[in-house]
């Protein structure tokens, strides 16, 4: 179940991903809530049904109901914010940064869990979604909250490995369907 099932589903050419998946989850220095919230938020961000099913089932064993919902909320709000802020940045016209986003995002201010944990989950999802503006913003908030760079880096590693796991599993499913 969960991480073990995903590791077993990864083909031999993705051995590095398999080993990294076991490592980022099995040897984490993050608190249980930070780790499994990051795992769940990243799984949701991949949009891979298999990865979401396996990791959400395992995350439910470690997260309170509130933290489980907050991790999903981080993935949801960043799905919107990452598109908006990445786009306004990529357009290259600084005037867009002065315009109000006019997007509801109150969950960021009141996520229902420790705000620092939620910020870490948003950072990890922003890495998967490729939004530099959001990465920089959430990293600044985390650093002001005295989160060590090593923990921020760990969340980024989790995002990278879960994203790679989803990419391989979905690619293999597509090849098998042919």
Annotation keywords:
178 residues; AhpD-like; globular
Rounded radius of gyration (Å)? 16 Å
Mean pLDDT score, rounded? 97
Number of helices: 9
N- and C-termini, Cα separation: 27 Å
Helix content: over 70%
Total separate domains: 1
What order do the helices and strands follow?
HHHHHHHHH
Disulfide bonds: 131-134
Subunit structure: Homotrimer.
Active site: 131 (proton donor), 134 (cysteine sulfenic acid (-soh) intermediate)
Domain Carboxymuconolactone decarboxylase-like: 96-175
Could you explain how this protein is built, in words?
By secondary structure, the protein is mainly α. It has one domain (3-177): AhpD-like (Up-down Bundle), CATH 1.20.1290. The protein has helices at 3-9, 15-26, 32-46, 49-59, 65-91, 95-98, 115-129, 132-144, 149-177. The longest helix is centred in the last third of the chain and has 29 residues, at 149-177.
What secondary-structure arrangement, pairings included, does this model have?
Blueprint: H1 3-9, H2 15-26, H3 32-46, H4 49-59, H5 65-91, H6 95-98, H7 115-129, H8 132-144, H9 149-177
Helix pairs in contact: 1-2, 2-9, 3-4, 3-5, 3-7, 3-9, 5-7, 7-8, 7-9
Summary, kept brief:
By secondary structure, the chain is an all-alpha fold.
